[in-house]
Amino acid sequence: MYQKYDVYKDSGLHWLGVIPDNWKIIKNKFLFNEINLRSFKSEHELLSVSQYTGVTKKSERIEVNEFLTNSNSLDGYKVVSKGDLVSNIMLAWNGSLGVSSYDGIVSPAYAVYRLVNNCCKEYFHYLLRTDLYKAEYKRQSTGVIESRLRLYTENFYAISSILPPLKDQQIISNFLKLKEMQIDQAIAIKEQQIALLNERKQIVIQQAVTKGLDPNVKMKDSGLEWIGKIPEHWQLSKLRYLGVTQNGISAGSEYFGSGYPFVSYGDVYKNRQLPLVVDGLAKSSIADQKNYSVLEGDVFFTRTSETVDEIGFASICYQTIEKATFAGFLIRFRPTNANYITKEFSKYYFNAQMMRTYFVKEMNLVIRASLSQELLKNLIVLLPSIDEQKAIASYLDRQMDAINELIGLQMSAIQKLKEYKTTLINDAVTGKIKVA
């Protein structure tokens, strides 16, 4: 699709390979000056650096600056001017650097560099964030293990940059800005399609667990605004009459890390069906394993979090996990009669969108959102017959498989677009392809 340059030459660096004949290789120490100007004004815009987005305004990423404890807390931060290259010394190896589009300040843990020659800043933003250069940062960084790697200025200066003629730099950066915008728009469309498919899943689940599968069934008012009408022959019951609830185990840090299976908050929050093998381990006693057991048919609810949006998510245990216990941030509901509710129906019912409506409406927020057993016990459960529950669950399994397949196709397409963008940037800034 894209042409090559007419003539190539050896760059002299094994990790760079060949470059176009009229391009140069210049060490960063001849291209950049380190800027170490310090701020003593709290009104400066606080910036941060991400491997995904480059330099961004901190105010656009979080609502409240966790760094600010008083008006002088930003004294001594480094000043950044638009066009400066900002590098997170500790995370440069994973691409946490980029050219800033803003004036502002950054943490003293960052390095700030300014181009000394007449060069296209946007070109260097693309070049220095490629996988090729991230690998070189890793080689040049000091530190024994990955989490302690540091790319100090002398190491950054020792790295060589590819320098095309200024006209080519501008052509490449303009080309990549356009292509990046087009690819990102395509990704955004597919992400929107995934969001719509996920909404579709919720609509299908809500419809099935509240209306059943027979479109001609006679309906009655449930008496609950957040549920609406339900099939006339369905029963309603509070959760308290269907089983027992139990908070999880709370213990010090020494209790965890080894021993027997332990169901964590994340296991429940991330999965609508509990994994058969969980990562957590706890030094549980025989008594703990009896009191906080994890049995087939159990339903676990997230109990506490920073926000109400993460409360009340449910995960169903499809198969007993021997000798397992569960976290204090969870509530276990254990049905006492299998003739009332099946695990297959539970998986969908307790994760219907109306559950979010119920928990958000009823939750009392103080400092942290917390779901009490009493509130959970008052949750209304719709009860079709056992045969109807199984039919609904089987129908929803098929529907979810079909929708998840469509989501998988969109996710695969997004991954390919991201890979294409990465390859295109790398090839353009290193001269593998000629873009004009």
From TrEMBL:
GO molecular function: endonuclease activity; hydrolase activity
Documented EC number(s): 3.1.21.-
Start and end residues of each Type I restriction modification DNA specificity domain: 249-405
Pfam families membership: Methylase_S
Keywords annotated in UniProt: DNA-binding, Endonuclease, Hydrolase, Nuclease, Restriction system
Record bears the keyword Hydrolase: yes
InterPro entries per the UniProt record, alphabetical: Restrct_endonuc_typeI_TRD, Restrct_endonuc_typeI_TRD_sf, Type-I_RS_S_subunit
Domain of life: Bacteria
Broadest EC class assigned to this enzyme: hydrolase
Family of this protein: Belongs to the type-I restriction system S methylase family.
Protein name: Restriction endonuclease subunit S
Organism of this sequence: Acinetobacter genomosp. 15BJ
